[in-house]
Amino acid sequence: MKLDKNWELKADSYSWVLKFTREEEVDEKVKEGKKYVKTGKRVVKEITNSWYYGTLKQCFMKYLNESTKECSSIQGLTEKIDHIEQLAEKFPKMFVVDGKVTKL
Predict the structure, then answer these.
(1) pTM for the full model?
(2) In angstroms, how far is the first alpha carbon of the chain from the final one?
(3) Please, which of 7, 16, 41, 63 could form a disulfide with 28 given CB 3.0 to 4.6 Å?
(4) 86, β-bridge pairs
(5) Three-state SS annotation for the chain
């Protein structure tokens, strides 16, 4: 489930997975022997981070903490919190057991 532009939520075998993805322009590197050498070109690379949680609440708390760091104003922060509250209201209390989503 896509939470916003960069964040995604998935159910794994025994947990919830929160995934952050962004694109970043980096220096291209090629392997020469045992070393990587910059080519002088800039390329766009997809950067991802994933976190695993036992409950949906823990997952949303991480999303709240990380996504609000991007806010540069009180209004932006308020809008982000409102967005997260709307997402949270859509879900009953759920958890993952043996790879299946279970509702309380």
Answers:
(1) 0.66
(2) 20
(3) 41
(4) none
(5) CECCCCEEEEECCCCEEEEEEEEEEEEEEEEECCEEEEEEEEEEEEEEEEEEECEHHHHHHHHHHHHHCCCCCHHHHHHHHHHHHHHHHCCCCEEEECCEEEEC
Rg (C-alpha) for the chain, rounded Å, is 18
Q: Please identify which residue in the block is written with the tokens 């949906």.
A: 56
Nearest to 14, CA basis, from 102, 101, 104, 98: 98
Instruction: Report residue 31: phi and psi, to 5°.
Output: -85, 125
Residue pLDDT, tens place only, 15-67: 889 999 999 998 999 999 999 998 889 999 999 999 999 888 888 888 888 88
Which residue's structure tokens are 């939470």? 3
Q: Are 16 and 54 in contact (CB under 8 A)?
A: yes
